[in-house]
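Quiz preparation item.
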């Protein structure tokens, strides 16, 4: 019944209920100081005769002449128009409440990666990072065989976009060809060393090369392992920034992936690595080199989410066993590492995503989705059926088949699913999910039916409508592939508002070829723009994961940004569909935000809301919230001390106060930070 309903929806679209936008062209850089009175005037920039926007150093190409753009924001057009690459065009309606169109920013559209080479079928990687601190996200892209003729080296592309026009330029000195002995970058992610919201770029490369650039200083984390350490054979493709030891600094977890020369599935080269941040740099965490943190699986994704809401962040380890769903082998399947109570001797306990043989599968990505009426579920991509896991049940329950998002195959082809993007795409208050699906190398040159990107829009009652080309996702053919014989095989997908126009942009990576860039089409329904939120945590660090978003007056917090995709550093910023609501920081503090109808970015700073004062015989905890129970735990002890209220927001305990770091628990929920 579900399948027939989806076919009817698709037929309705085919009959013409949705407008398909014209193919777009690249726009050159636009000076933000241009005024409306200058629009359309010729400028002395670029060739005397131009054929396309990209040939203009500034402005746009109109009638073969470089001229000032006719608009630089949607607000400069009529109400029934939008600004599209410097020109005002009509807004359209969309029967599904959401529409995408392809964009072709010249530098990104020409970044070409070989489809084969080392590292199996995992494809090239990338990251969103504000490397120049100008308040927009730049794009770093890797390349599988960067010295192959006709293919691009790894490159950091600076974002010079304006509203409605995506424009990226290679950053001088950051796109040089690699030497024959150089480590080859596989992935990257943004990091925040100082906890101040600034971005540093962490590049993960072959030979276990982990390089974090902090201005003129370079941290080489791989040098912390001895040259003969077998873990130096790790192929790093996944990474997560999180505070692992609760000292108030971001640490780093690195996921190691299989490669062609790996050998045994129990090889030390597959053991995930953990680094803690220190005052001078980083150090290995030997306490994490033990079960259950020692992984032994091929980890394609790492994510963070407090699944049991005890305040302690849990880790999601997305392992690819190289087998179809439910086919057991020697490899370790994916799981959740639940953080132990700080009174316990353990660090984590392990729970697999399923019991028995169902735990095995080629898990590749993960997202957190609120299922209407049923709470939080994990969307996990796999070979064959996708998974929709309720981890609140024991054992975990998979509802993918029940709610129609399993999509195990297309025609006669088993689908390999990779990227996961969760958002309220159609802005109806419910979580939707976009999944990219592309064949492994052996199938890349096969039928286009082996590749199928799907946007699943959630309706009330947790019914899903499955759409693809109907809402603007491109067909899978050879146009964007590495060569004419292959079919474009997507991998991870990154989401952000890259041009600051208040609408989503998507960057899809692939096995080979070029990235695909999509932009949300502003519709003629009068809705305000989306708003980019830059959260700045103060008590418990967070960067890219761990912050909840409740839109408008919603009670439920959504954790759409948790990382967890193959070789992709996701945006550390949030996007609000409504522009008003609340953020929940990892400390538990809830802060309101209001974008006042604008697209942002809006910085939401967590206040210094928790204070701990103590002497030899007294400890006082002061909060800005209303709490019924305040407890403290001294590090190394197993007994909680209950504090008594002594005034508004003030709690106190007298007696012997050990000179030990202390952690606070408010109404049964830990604040995961050891305070000196």
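Solution:
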């Amino acid at each position: 019944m579900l399948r027939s309903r989806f076919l009817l929806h698709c037929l309705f679209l085919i009959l013409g209920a949705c407008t398909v936008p014209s193919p777009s062209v690249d726009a050159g850089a636009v000076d933000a100081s241009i005024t409306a009175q200058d629009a359309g005037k010729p400028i002395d920039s670029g060739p005397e005769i131009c054929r396309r926007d990209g040939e203009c150093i500034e402005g746009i190409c109109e009638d073969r002449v470089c001229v000032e753009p006719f608009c630089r924001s949607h607000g400069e057009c009529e109400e029934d128009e939008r600004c599209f690459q410097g020109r005002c065009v009509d807004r359209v309606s969309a029967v599904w409440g959401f529409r995408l169109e392809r964009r072709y920013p010249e530098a990104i559209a020409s970044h070409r990666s070989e489809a084969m080479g080392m590292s199996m079928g995992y494809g090239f990687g990338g990251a969103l990072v504000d490397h120049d601190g100008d308040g927009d996200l730049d794009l770093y892209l890797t390349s599988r065989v960067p010295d192959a003729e006709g293919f691009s080296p790894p490159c950091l592309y600076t974002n010079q976009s304006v509203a409605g026009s995506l424009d990226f330029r290679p950053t001088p000195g950051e796109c040089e060809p690699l030497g024959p002995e150089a480590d080859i970058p596989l992935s990257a992610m943004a990091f925040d060393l100082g906890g101040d919201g600034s971005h540093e770029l962490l590049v993960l490369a072959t030979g276990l090369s982990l390089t974090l650039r902090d201005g003129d200083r370079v941290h080489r984390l791989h040098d912390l392992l001895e040259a003969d350490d077998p873990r130096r054979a790790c192929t790093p493709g996944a990474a997560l920034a999180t505070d692992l030891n609760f000292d108030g600094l971001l640490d780093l977890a690195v996921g190691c992936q299989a490669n062609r020369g790996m050998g045994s599935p129990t090889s030390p080269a597959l053991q995930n690595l953990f680094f803690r941040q220190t005052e001078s740099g980083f150090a290995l965490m030997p306490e994490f080199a033990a079960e259950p943190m020692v992984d032994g699986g091929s980890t394609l994704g790492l994510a963070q989410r407090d699944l049991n809401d005890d305040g302690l962040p849990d880790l999601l380890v997305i392992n690819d066993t190289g087998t179809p769903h439910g086919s057991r082998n020697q490899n370790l399947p994916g799981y959740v590492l639940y953080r132990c109570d700080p009174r316990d001797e353990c660090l984590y306990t392990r729970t697999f995503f399923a019991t028995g043989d169902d735990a095995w599968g080629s898990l590749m990505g993960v997202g957190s989705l609120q299922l209407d009426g049923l709470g939080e579920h994990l969307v996990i991509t796999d070979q064959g059926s996708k998974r929709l896991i309720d981890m609140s049940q024991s054992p975990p329950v998979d509802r993918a088949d029940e709610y129609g998002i399993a999509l195990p195959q297309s025609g006669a082809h088993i689908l390999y699913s990779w990227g996961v993007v969760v958002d309220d795409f159609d802005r109806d208050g419910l979580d939707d999910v976009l999944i990219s699906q592309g064949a492994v190398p052996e199938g890349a040159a096969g039928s286009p039916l082996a590749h199928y990107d799907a946007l699943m829009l959630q309706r009330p009652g947790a019914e899903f409508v499955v759409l693809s080309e109907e809402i603007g996702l491109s067909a899978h053919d050879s146009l964007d592939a590495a060569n004419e014989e292959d079919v474009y095989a997507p991998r991870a997908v990154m989401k952000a508002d890259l041009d600051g126009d208040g609408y989503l942009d998507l960057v899809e990576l692939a096995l080979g070829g070029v990235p695909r860039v999509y932009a949300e089409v502003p519709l003629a329904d009068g809705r305000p723009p989306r708003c980019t939120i830059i959260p700045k945590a103060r008590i418990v660090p967070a960067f890219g994961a761990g912050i909840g978003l409740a839109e408008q007056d919603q009670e439920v917090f959504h954790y759409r940004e948790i990382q967890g995709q193959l070789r992709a550093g996701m945006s550390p910023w949030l996007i609000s569909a409504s522009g008003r609501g609340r953020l929940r920081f990892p400390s538990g503090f809830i802060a309101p935000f209001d974008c006042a109808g604008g697209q942002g970015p809006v910085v939401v700073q967590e206040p210094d809301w928790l204070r701990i004062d103590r002497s030899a015989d007294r400890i006082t905890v002061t909060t800005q919230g209303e709490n019924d129970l305040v407890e403290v735990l001294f590090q190394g002890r197993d007994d909680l001390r209950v504090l008594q209220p002594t005034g508004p927001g003030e709690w106190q305990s007298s007696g012997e106060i050990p000179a030990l770091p202390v952690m606070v628990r408010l109404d049964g929920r830990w604040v995961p930070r050891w305070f000196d």
